Amino acid sequence: MLRRNSCKCLTSVRFGSYTPPITQFSYIQDVLSDSSKEEVAKYLKNLGPFPTYSNILNPQHFYQNAVLLDYSKQHPHPVSLRQLAGFGNTLSKQKIINSANFVRIELPIRLAMRIRDLQTLPFGVVNNFHLAQIYESYYHSFNAFRKIPKIHTIEENNKFCKTLSSLLDDHVFNLSHLMMGALEVAIAESLPQKELDSFMSTMLRSRISRRVIVEEHLSLSKNYMQKPYDRKPPHYLGEMFHDCNAVENLNIVAEMVKNSMRASYPDIERMPDLEIEGDLNTHFQFMVPHLHYLFHEIIRNSFEATIKTHSTKTSKILPPVKVIIIDSKKNVLFRISDQGGGINHDKLKNIWSFAKDPNLARKSLSNFHRIPGLQLYSNLRVTPAGSSIVTQQAENIIQGTSIGDRNKEKKSTLEDLMARPHQYELGLGLPMCSVYADYWNGQLTMNSLEGYGSDTSLMLSKLGYHSNIIQLDRA
């Protein structure tokens, strides 16, 4: 015992001072008081692999992941809009059952691929709170879908549709978390710009594909229950694709933008008008929430730039925002022009990136938390053993989807983002729009004359002519 003590003394002499033992607070900076250290230490257990708030990450997760790896090695089935809608040209019991089993098999594979992408991110990225929420949500759905047995009857399909509808509701918050996660990654500079943009594009494309596949099946099931064996026209793509009048939808969105600006610019009579020229009778099939979001972010930027540039210089009505519609056989082109002062060319090349300047990202993140009614937390539940639970309370199998009643109380995340007050700038509108346009085989570009204004060109493919392109393989 004496020898041990003497060794301890020698050690202290050798290194010049006594080294305190390692404690649970050792990694915390010395500038913190003991009380602060104790307060911070309460949360240390949530920095480990199994945080207490997690429903998915438990000691069994490693073994569950072996199942996921098997699914992630499989390939999603390439499918086009035309093939997907082909189920609905002439509805029958067997087609509905085949469609249900396609969705049942396809979703776990596609979810596994995205979960694996999240797992391979750097620790400082995947450990981000918002991305961790997405991880849990995806794993919850993966667990639920892989356990659903083969569907043989219409009654089993009806139950399956309620599960699909409930999972759509559970996933409504994911888009918000994805965007906020990107902002926090930009603040921390945890990923290079190219990698962050690639990750966000992949996640968004995959989300669109999964939701189109799910909603297409829900619409087919609804149609079969209402009109079994009904025949659809040759150009039928599904109930979620509406016949869109270009002028009508542009005016709806312009009014939406003006209403969001009333608090900041009460002199609404002086706001820019939206002047529409060109092929005014243009109609095309598209998903209305996506179309409105594309129009909204572009028109909002043009209105805002025009007001900032001219509102203090004149008491008259501000210069209009002009839209020219060009309707060709396979595409529709919208050219939106404003006199909002333009954008510096050094900044123009970065407007399509999710990797924002950290200071701008902080402001955007702060605004995100102020958006009224935006759901940030999921309804996910699990059993004590960690199995996913899906509540099936949906009486209407399409309630809350984009094919439901447009006047439904429940809104999509895109609708919540568009309805936000004008002052809550998020900084991700154009990068998001670029991904959405590209997904539907379109293109979004901008030219700017600094000191005068900007021209934004949105080209959208007519889905009827491009429906054989296998875009839903963007898993």
From TrEMBL:
GO terms for molecular function: ATP binding; pyruvate dehydrogenase (acetyl-transferring) kinase activity. InterPro entries: AK/P_DHK_N_sf (IPR036784), BCDHK/PDK_N (IPR018955), BCKD/PDK (IPR039028), HATPase_C_sf (IPR036890). It is found in: Mitochondrion matrix. Its main location: mitochondrion. Residues 78-239 form the Branched-chain alpha-ketoacid dehydrogenase kinase/Pyruvate dehydrogenase kinase N-terminal domain. Coiled coil: none annotated. Pfam families: BCDHK_Adom3. Its EC number is 2.7.11.-. The keyword Kinase applies. It is an enzyme of class 2 (transferase). Gene3D superfamilies: Alpha-ketoacid/pyruvate dehydrogenase kinase, N-terminal domain, Histidine kinase-like ATPase, C-terminal domain. GO terms for cellular component: mitochondrial matrix. Keywords: ATP-binding, Kinase, Mitochondrion, Nucleotide-binding, Transferase. GO terms for biological process: regulation of glucose metabolic process. The keyword Ubl conjugation does not apply. PANTHER family: [PYRUVATE DEHYDROGENASE (ACETYL-TRANSFERRING)] KINASE 2, MITOCHONDRIAL (PTHR11947:SF25), PYRUVATE DEHYDROGENASE KINASE (PTHR11947). Belongs to the PDK/BCKDK protein kinase family. This is Protein-serine/threonine kinase. It comes from Candida maltosa (strain Xu316). The lineage of its organism: Eukaryota, Fungi, Dikarya, Ascomycota, Saccharomycotina.
